[in-house]
Amino acid sequence: MNNQHKEETGLDPTNWEEVRQLGYRMIDDMVAYLKTAGDRPVWSPIPDDVKDTYSEPLPQLPGNIGAIYEEFKQNIFPFSTGNTHPRFFAWVQGGGTSFGALADFMASVMNSNVAIGDHSALYIENQVLGWCKQMFNYPETASGILVSGASIANITALIVARNAASERIKLEGLAGVDSKLVAYCSAETHNCIAKAIEVIGIGSEQLRKIPVDGKYRIDIDALQLQIEQDTQDGFQPFCIVGNAGTVNTGAIDDLNALLHIAREKHVWFHVDGAFGSLAKLVPAYADQLQAIEEADSIAFDLHKWLYMPYEVGCVLFRNAAQHRAAFAAPANYLLAHERGIAGGPESFSNYGMELSRGFKALKVWMSFKENGLQKYSTMIAQNIAQAQYLGSLIEENCQLELLAPVTLNIVCYRYCRQGMSEQELDMLNKELLMRMQERGIAAPSFTLLHGRYTIRVAITNHRTRLSDMDIMVASSVEIGDEIFNERG
Ligand SMILES: Cc1ncc(COP(=O)(O)O)c(C=O)c1O
Fold first, then answer.
1. Domain 113-358 architecture
2. pLDDT tens digits for 426-461?
3. Where are the domains of the chain?
4. Which of these, 89, 137, 360, 419, is most buried using a 10 Å CB contact count?
């Protein structure tokens, strides 16, 4: 061995025993953390001195892994958003599971790039896509891909829908269509749809946000009128987006009616089912969500209402050829071989934008095996029952006002006292929400409904129990009274 060889170095540890011991400690910490998730405040503000550590400069020299882990435990670990806690109800965030976390750890150990090649991870992603198709009764010939979340799942679907509007778009871009393309969704649709429509070159003016009815569902008559008007005006309708669970209130659009209109007008029918589509697993919701089975595409998250750790979403397409046509691009260095590592299943890069892709499918595979579909159905039904219980407690309480019907897992309400103006109520409820979060009691989030500040509880949480709903009501009244009395 010459001197040059001796000077070579690597990143594997010189002391594997140290890694083993640290790994054991990490597992112990994980178990303690998740086992006692409900014993801590839901959320704690990050102290300024801790925030200061976040701007430390780029390390130039090696550090000790034990010391680095201690730093993590002190400055990072305690200051999560709180979505592992039973009373975390903000936005729509799942709580994750211990086995899911271990799966992610092993996926990192394998360090698979799930794009190309004859290796297990590609087969497992295909397997879990098959399971997802089964959940929504999609045909075996359908295609799909795992992505980071519903935002990317939705844009992936809209790209395919746009390209399906004209064969010329792939080559010529939007210059390839004679009329301006227009898409339709309700005014309650998540903003990722508007973002997608902008990013894929359609332009947000060509996204028609149709008004909703009293239950926050798309107004079907208004939609039909708008499509007729647009057609008369020379636009080309290309896509209807239906909601299976709106982000604000959990409303489910009349998906059957939307499917019918889409078929009649020969336009793409996409469902944003980020969380609500999973209620299809609950028999009481199967009919309302039946039309998903016929949709051209469906976007949903596994990190929301299937409680898997971040991040993993999915998009499915009824027509695999159209899905592939939108993303497949020839490259000499990606050619499939008959044998060897470049053999195996078709590259996922033909079905999405990413070429480098992590092994998200492993936590999905392990979690489905750990729990089975029936357990997920039970958990989702339990969350819906909790939302209904909270809704009934609010209705019974004269100091609280329900601001939207509880149709799924979202409860919108506010603290209310007679004689207060809308503006005063907005300010009081905002303050109530912030105090509830700062005291670590619970973490609902907020929205505006008809311009009114609304406390919003979205339950996609497998750690939540009915008693947490009692706490929500008691603390809302207590903090509301406290702020009311402070007014003098
Ligand atoms: C209805 C709906 N669609 C899309 C999204 C975006 O999902 P993600 O945050 O996984 O990108 C959300 C997020 O809450 C949602 O509720």
1. 3-Layer(aba) Sandwich (3.40)
2. 999 999 999 999 999 999 999 999 999 999 999 999
3. 113-358, 372-486
4. 89
Residue 243 in 3-state DSSP? strand
| Closest atom of ligand 1 to CA, residue 246 | 1
Distance CA 256, CA 242 (A): 10
How many angstroms separate the alpha carbon of residue 442 from the centre of ligand 1? 21
Q: Which amino acid residue places its CA nearest to atom 10 of ligand 1?
A: 149
CA-CA-CA-CA torsion sign (87, 360, 312, 256): negative
Which of 189, 361, 150 minimizes the C-alpha distance to 274? 150
- Is the minimum distance from the CB of 274 to ligand 1 under 6 angstroms? yes
Question: Residue 193 Cα, ligand 1 centroid: separation in angstroms?
Answer: 10
Q: Looking at ligand 1, which residue's alpha carbon is closest to its atom 14?
A: 92
Answer yes or no: is pLDDT of 488 > 70. Answer: no
Atom of ligand 1 at shortest distance to CA of 92? 14
Residue type, 388: Q
Enter the pTM of the model.
Answer: 0.97
| DSSP β-ladder status, 236-243 and 181-186 | parallel
Q: Which fold has domain 372-486?
A: Aspartate Aminotransferase, domain 1 (3.90.1150)
- Helix orientation angle between 422-438 and 466-486, rounded to the nearest 10 degrees: 120
